[in-house]
Amino acid sequence: MKKLDNNQPDTPQGTPDEFETGSPEQTDQIIQIGGVTASKGKHVIHCLTIIGQIEGHYILPAQNKTTKYEHVIPQLLAVEQDPEIEGLVVILNTVGGDVEAGLAIAELLSGMRKPTVSLVLGGGHSIGVPLAVSARRSFIVPSATMTVHPVRMNGLVLGVPQTLSYFDRMQERIVKFVTDNSRISPERFRQLMMNKDELVMDVGTVLDGQAAVDEGLIDSLGGVSDVIAALYEMIEGDVK
């Protein structure tokens, strides 16, 4: 019989990397990196959360709930390199944030060889749209919404033609990424971005879960069980 330290919880025998659900190790992983590796199911998968506002080059106020891209990028590289992790689930509930940081994370996600699935809960707004479509399969719950709008910036900017040109090029990068990783056409995506009749204080379109699927932005309606089933299917398909 395995001898247990009196100061440690009584857990089943297994490898040191196996986390019990709700264990201190798992809780610490969630607190530190906003993700967790689940190893007690049929396959070992990593869950990454992208919530609040994407924090990029500038630190946001302390009261803001943020996802820091310098935390997410190493996490994605570790998942891709870890031979024990078989797939990745990305849970999104974000209002958007730093465009370049969000697009950088989305590019990393889309370039992963391991099976990836995304699920939009609550909202996947602004730069959250490229993040949602960057996975191999994307899901959205019926009550979630996604806001599609042009690139814009608040604060002090230089009022020169080059600034507008930079915004145009950034916007085209987003259009290309989204349309390359989903079923929506560039023309339709630009129409949704430039819609002037829906938002009172902005230009753009708000899509609920079913509308996002109908537009071809998201693959399917579904919840967490559908996400896990799709990920397992991809994992087992890759193994075969």
UniProtKB/TrEMBL annotation:
Catalytic EC class: hydrolase
GO terms for MF: serine-type endopeptidase activity
Hydrolase keyword on record: yes
Biased composition (Polar residues): 1-14
Entry's EC annotation: 3.4.21.92
Keywords, sorted A to Z: Hydrolase
Top-level division of the source organism's lineage: Bacteria
Entry annotated with the keyword Hydrolase: yes
Region (Disordered): 1-24
Name the record gives this protein: Endopeptidase Clp
Natural source organism: Anaerotruncus colihominis DSM 17241
The organism's taxonomic lineage, starting at the top: Bacteria, Bacillati, Bacillota, Clostridia, Eubacteriales
